[in-house]
Every structure is written in structure tokens, then in C-alpha cells.
Amino acid sequence: QAHVCSLAQVPFRGAPCSDAAGSQVPYAAIMKQVNSSLSGVLWDELQKAPFYEYKDSVGQFHQVWFDDPHSISLKAAYVKSRGLRGIGMWNGNSLDYSREAAAEQQTQAMWQALTP
């Protein structure tokens, strides 16, 4: 099946496979790596989230799922449409707060996406 990345079975609280098998990647690293990835940005319509695929230096296949302004804005709009009291995200300090123009634009777009 296309675009399937199997996680190692790392049991966590009763789940046979969990994010305990993966790791968190800073948004800045994602934004730099996605353009040189095997796939470029892909979109999962069911999850309403972007992801990309790459192979590391030893040929191991990886898949990186992340949020971007589009996916965050869809989640924020859902919260608003249901009259919910708020939205949380994990985690704001993974954004790129450097003074680079591209980083400032990306970070600003992510924060703005939280308010539909």
C-alpha cells in the first residue's frame, strides 16, 4: 500500500504501536527537509494533515507528519463551529523563532491559523 510507514511495536498504555516509537522534529527542521524529501508535501484527507517521506543516509524509510497553517486552521474552524471553548497544540516552542524572514513568516502564519 502506498505511503504506509510501519512504526516499531513499542507498547505504551495498552496500545501496541505508539508515538513512543517516533520522535519529535522541530518545525524549522521540517520546513527545511520537506523540500528535499522523496515526496514533497503530501496531504492525508482523512487526518486533514500534511506529511512527507524521506530516506536517511543508510536508506531507512521515514514518514514525518506535522501541522501547517492549513491543517491548524481546519482544526481551529472545527472548534469554533462546535462552540468549543478552546484549542491546544503541541508544541509552540518547536516553531522557528529566529530572525530569518522565512522563519518569521512561517511562525506568524502558524499562530494566526489558530484564530479562524
TrEMBL record:
Keyword Hydrolase: yes
PANTHER family assigned to the protein according to its UniProt record, in alphabetical order: DI-N-ACETYLCHITOBIASE
Superkingdom as given in the UniProt entry: Eukaryota
Protein name: DIAC acetylchitobiase
InterPro entries: Chitinase_insertion_sf (IPR029070), GH (IPR017853), GH18_Domain-Containing (IPR051887), Glyco_hydro18_cat (IPR001223)
Annotated keywords: Glycosidase, Hydrolase
Domain GH18, residue spans: 1-116
One record GO biological process: oligosaccharide catabolic process
Pfam families named among the record's database cross-references: Glyco_hydro_18 (PF00704)
Gene Ontology terms for molecular function: chitinase activity
Keyword Hydrolase: yes
Gene it is expressed from: Ctbs
Gene Ontology cellular component annotations, sorted alphabetically: extracellular space
